[in-house]
Design a protein that fits this description.
By secondary structure, the protein is of the alpha+beta class. It contains three helices and nine strands. Helices cover 26% and strands 32% of the residues. A hairpin with a 7-residue loop joins strand 6 and strand 7.
């Protein structure tokens, strides 16, 4: 009985890892929040709330654009990607910096747990905000490939699309600090117009 439970846990972890790593290749969908990105990138669309981070109370979609070296630690663009969160806000709903920071913590905590067979790890997130622009760092353990401590640098912004009542957060993420050529590639990923 114990062996079966352990095997089930291993199978669940394996399926989760394969889905998270290869679903951009297998299940790529057309993106609605990005209009331009490198042709060699992989993409993915996930409905919110995401299963591994149910504490994020957004109702919408997440779209991801992975640079080619996303899962190749020997590449300069390892773990470098863009993601957007799209949400249909209630009338007058505004999110404060602290709430967005909590969402980022919940997202990376849940992602780590989903890939690491249920192990817990609390990422440390620092974030600065100037108007609708965000910059910060995420300190966590990268669970997919290296399983080592990693600091991710991120830049983000918030856009409200009034015509369609849609709130979008756009993030660029990389372990490479700025300025690095990876950021030029990340900044070539262009949001679509509302």
């Amino acid at each position: 009985m114990v062996k079966r439970v352990k095997l089930d846990g291993i199978l669940i972890r394996l399926v989760t890892c394969i889905t998270l790593i290869f679903s951009p290749v297998i299940f790529a969908e057309e993106l609605s929040t990005y209009s331009k990105f490198p042709k060699s990138s992989k993409t993915e669309v996930i409905p919110f709330p995401v299963e591994f981070a149910s504490d994020i109370t957004l109702n919408g979609i997440e779209e991801l654009v992975f640079l080619p070296g996303m899962y190749k630690p020997e590449e300069e663009d390892f773990f470098s990607y863009a993601f957007s969160w799209t949400h249909k806000p209630e009338k007058g709903q505004v999110f404060q910096k602290s709430e967005i920071q909590e969402f980022i913590v919940a997202y990376y905590k849940g992602l780590y747990k989903a890939v690491s067979d249920g192990k817990e790890y609390e990422p440390a997130v620092t974030m600065e905000q100037a108007d609708e622009e965000y910059t910060g760092q995420i300190s966590w353990v990268e669970p997919f490939v290296t399983k080592k401590k990693q600091t991710l640098h991120f830049k983000g912004n918030q856009v409200y699309c009034e015509k369609i009542n849609e709130l979008r957060w756009y993030f660029l993420v990389s372990p490479q600090g700025s300025p690095h050529s990876v950021w030029d590639e990340l900044q070539s990923i262009k949001p679509s117009n509302c």
